[in-house]
Structures are given as structure tokens and as C-alpha cells.
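Suppose you are handed only these lines of text.
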Amino acid sequence: MPIFACTLCDASAVKPPFSLDDSAPVRCFRCDCVVGTWGDLKDRANRLIALEQAGSVGRRSIRSADPLCHHP
Ligand SMILES: [Zn+2]
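From them, the structure of the protein bound to zinc ion can be written out as follows.
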């Protein structure tokens, strides 16, 4: 599973929606385009966790960047 990246600007940081319902749009932190829905992002995280827990993929091949940008 490849690392998440915006298809327009290649950034990996996203802005979570204000309302965390599954159909709410998630936007790229850099260029503000819609990169998917909150439900998409949750599904992706759950798939990564399931793969890791199943041990079906070596840890080196699972790459999960934190897509949320942290600002102090
Ligand atoms: Zn972008």
C-alpha cells in the first residue's frame, strides 16, 4: 500500500473536516483540493492496521505517514 499523497501537489498532510462524518471532504493541507472523504481516510487507516496485525506484510513494506499536520 503506497504512502498517501495528494495527486496534485504530492503533499502528505491533510486538513480534517470540521464535521467528522464519513461523507465529509478531507482537503490537502498544501493546495486545499479535496483528496477524499473522512470515511476514505478511516478505511485506509483501518486497512493498514489490519495488514500490520495480520503480519501478512513485513513491517518494512508498510509505510504509514501521519497525514495530519501538527502545528504547536
Ligand atoms: Zn495538494
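What can we learn from it? The beta strands are 14-15, 25-28, 34-37. Residues 1-72 form one domain.
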